[in-house]
Specification:
The chain is of the alpha/beta class. Helix content is 41%, strand content 13%. It has 21 helices and 15 strands. The protein has helices spanning 16-20, 58-63, 73-81, 94-104, 139-142, 146-156, 177-191, 211-219, 232-238, 246-261, 280-289, 304-308, 310-313, 317-336, 344-354, 387-393, 410-414, 417-424, 447-454, 465-483, 485-498; strands at residues 28-29, 32-36, 41-46, 51-55, 85-86, 114-118, 163-169, 197-203, 222-227, 266-269, 294-295, 342-343, 374-377, 382-384, 401-404. The strands form four sheets. Strands 10-9-8-7-6-13-14-15 form an eight-stranded mixed β-sheet, sandwiched between helices. It is globular, with a radius of gyration of 25 Å. Bound molecules: iron/sulfur cluster (SF4).
């Protein structure tokens, strides 16, 4: 490039008086960011996540002090009331704003709540996207020992949180049901002594579930989290097992679980594979048919065996977004016809947008939810920053291993240099690209996904699938609410149902 072609942009700060606002003493700016929604509209977002959809060009007018109270009293009033600008140097309600900021971050108050116990790596399924599947009878090698269960419970009960969740995972956790019973009974003995309440969850494909297991779950108030990828032709293709009857067993198991435990104690998760991408409507309708009135539209996690099977699983984020919008559209149709049916990912984001409450969803937290919200004890006693980190370890990447139950104390795990490094790279307020992104209060940071897909924990937003997905879903939700008041009302009802 010739030297003359190089355009140097001058972005020097203006004189102090410009910011001091002495000359035109009209209004003061408060911290805010903006993003273009479409050709006509842009959205302003303040530090606590309040948003205002305005005409394109408004942000520029605001910062250039071209906004006039007399010319546009409604807009001016909205901007003052929602803490985008202030008529005095220190806004009279600054303490309220500070309290609201603290409230939004209150998910940090109690530190780690979710404790994942990988009870067994064994599984009778061989799902092609599974990170950890092991078809083996070798209990000794691939089941968590009782010694490690004891040590994991001891570490869990040291959490500062008065309420913790113990989630049993696999492989297929029900292959180690005797050990689950042992763990539940040990927690019952010890939790009261440490003033803890404990929620139990078993994650299972339900192939092995029976009445006896479910009656035990009912007695001990254990929740069931299962998997349903869609109609039989999708589910059975994604989730392979001898007999090719994963779908039939899952449906039978869901029905039995709902009958014995009650519908609200049974949930299902779907994973979007390449095959799923062509069937958004069919997948939503399958959930509806099975009596679910919520679902979570999840892309595949870029870990473990999932990324080894590229042909089936490595699709572009654009294709997932197209799938997501079609599926969300079908869910909204049910709502517009008078049904109450929610999409969980949208609901989490909407709760961040439309309520003052904290949202402790691991993947959309800043600071990152790994370690601060979740910890995983692997079947062999190794301790990881999250479930995804132990999946990375299955690929021989031990970057997020924090220690081992045999050798490390609570302090050595949670206050280690490694833990500090992981959490400090997971703060989107200070990450390049995120720090000036309008959607920052609704989004999160995921150092583990950054590391797995981009080679370092900080990540690079322009090519990040995590960023692309969140940015477009957040933009789309705001646009939908702005365009259609009926949809805005539906979204409000989703948020209220979780409040
Ligand atoms: S990841 Fe992307 S969408 Fe999320 S805050 Fe960062 S830049 Fe914004």
């Amino acid at each position: 490039m010739a030297e003359a072609d190089v355009i140097t942009k001058n972005r020097k700060f203006k004189e102090l008086g410009f910011y001091d606002n002495q000359e035109n003493n009209v209004y003061f700016l408060l911290p805010m960011r903006f993003a273009r929604l479409n050709q006509e509209k842009e959205v302003l977002v303040n530090e606590v996540g309040d948003h205002l959809v305005v005409r394109e060009g408004t942000f520029q007018k605001i910062v250039q002090r071209e906004l006039n109270k007399e010319d546009d009293p409604d807009l001016f009033g909205d901007l003052v009331a929602n803490h985008f600008i202030s008529e005095s140097r220190i806004p009279p309600l600054i303490d309220v704003l500070a309290t609201r900021y603290r409230t939004k971050k209150a998910f940090l108050n109690n530190f780690t709540m979710l404790h994942i116990f990988v009870m067994s790596l064994r599984c009778e399924h061989t799902c092609h996207y599974c990170q950890v599947s092991r078809v083996t009878q070798d209990k000794d090698k691939f089941d968590m020992s009782r010694d490690h269960i004891d040590k994991g419970i001891d570490m869990m009960l040291q959490s500062p949180s008065p309420h913790v969740t113990m989630e049993f995972q696999g492989g297929e956790a029900l292959l180690a049901f005797d050990n689950i019973k042992y763990a539940v009974e040990r927690v019952h003995l010890l939790a009261g002594l440490r003033n803890k309440s404990v929620t139990f969850v078993i994650c299972t494909n339900l192939a092995l579930v029976n009445e006896e297991i479910l009656l035990y779950c009912k007695e001990h108030e254990i929740l069931i989290s299962s998997s349903l990828d869609g109609p039989a032709f999708i589910h059975n293709s994604n989730r392979t097992r001898p007999g090719r009857n994963s779908y039939e067993l899952a449906i039978k198991g869901i029905e039995l679980s709902k009958r014995i435990l009650g519908p609200s104690r049974v949930s299902a998760l779907m994973t979007t594979t390449n095959l799923s991408l062509d069937y958004p409507i069919e997948i939503v309708e399958e959930y509806y048919k099975q009596g679910f009135r919520n679902m979570f539209l999840r892309p595949i996690s870029p870990y473990g065996f999932a990324v080894r099977n590229e042909r089936k699983n490595k699709y572009e984020t654009d294709r997932f977004l197209e799938f997501y919008k079609k599926a969300l559209g079908r869910i909204l149709e049910y709502n517009l016809a008078g049904e109450f049916f929610t999409e969980d990912y949208a609901t989490i984001i909407l709760r961040k947008m439309l309520t003052p409450f904290p949202v402790g969803y691991v993947d959309l937290n800043s600071p990152t939810g790994c370690i601060t919200n979740v910890i995983a004890f692997n079947y062999d006693g190794s301790i990881f920053a999250s479930d995804e980190s132990r999946m990375l370890a299955e690929m021989k990447d031990f970057t997020f291993q924090l220690g081992h139950l045999d050798t490390h104390s609570y302090e050595e795990v949670f206050y280690s240099k490694r833990a500090l490094e992981i959490v400090s790279t997971g703060i989107n307020e200070s990450l390049p690209g995120c720090s000036d992104c309008a959607f920052q209060p609704y989004c999160g940071a995921d150092p583990i996904q950054n590391h797995a897909t981009q080679g370092d924990m900080y990540g690079y937003r322009p090519t990040s699938s995590f960023c692309q997905k969140n940015m477009e879903i957040i933009r789309y939700l705001i646009e939908l609410m702005d365009k259609d008041k009926a949809i805005a009302k539906i979204f409000e009802s989703w948020v209220k149902s979780r409040s």
